[in-house]
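ok so i was messing around last nite and threw this chain in just to see what happens. nothing serious, just curious
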Amino acid sequence: MRRDLVVRAQAGDHAAFSELAAAAIGGLYRVAHLILRDRDLSNDAVQNALITAWRDLRGLRDPDRFDAWLYRLTVRACHRSARTERRRSVTEIELLPSHDASTADDTRTVIARDQLERGFRRLSTDQRAALVLHFYLDLPLAEAAETMGIPTGTMKSRLNRATQALRAALDANERGAVVTKEGIA
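result:
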């Protein structure tokens, strides 16, 4: 069924492409948001990827590889967006209500998520893309490398450097928090 839709879309069927895009747009947005960490940039990257997909769909040789091709276009759109967008990073802090016993676990979860978010923001776009493709989308190394358009060995080294950089960023955040607590006490 999906292959049939791709073939029809390659022949210029707008409805078939719309159906393919509607089925894929949620996953594409999640990947773009994980890479770019910005709602508006992610929407733009997905839109650009879908425009490129429609424009270049006839050149797709294997209709069964449509999903991988679409993710590759999205990752490339994210890279272009990250290169051209030089914005200040705005951090929103949600004020939490008083800390009672029922919110203690929620607070720890929010704190852990915030630390991970800050660490993730310190990574380069390539490092975030490698982590997202391999760990979030659960793609094997070879497929993630193909999606990024790089050799498998390069993907392995990017993944290794990304995890090391993320660990270092998390450790730095934690050391800063300890110093701040000690300075206050």
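not much to say yet. The mean pLDDT is 85.
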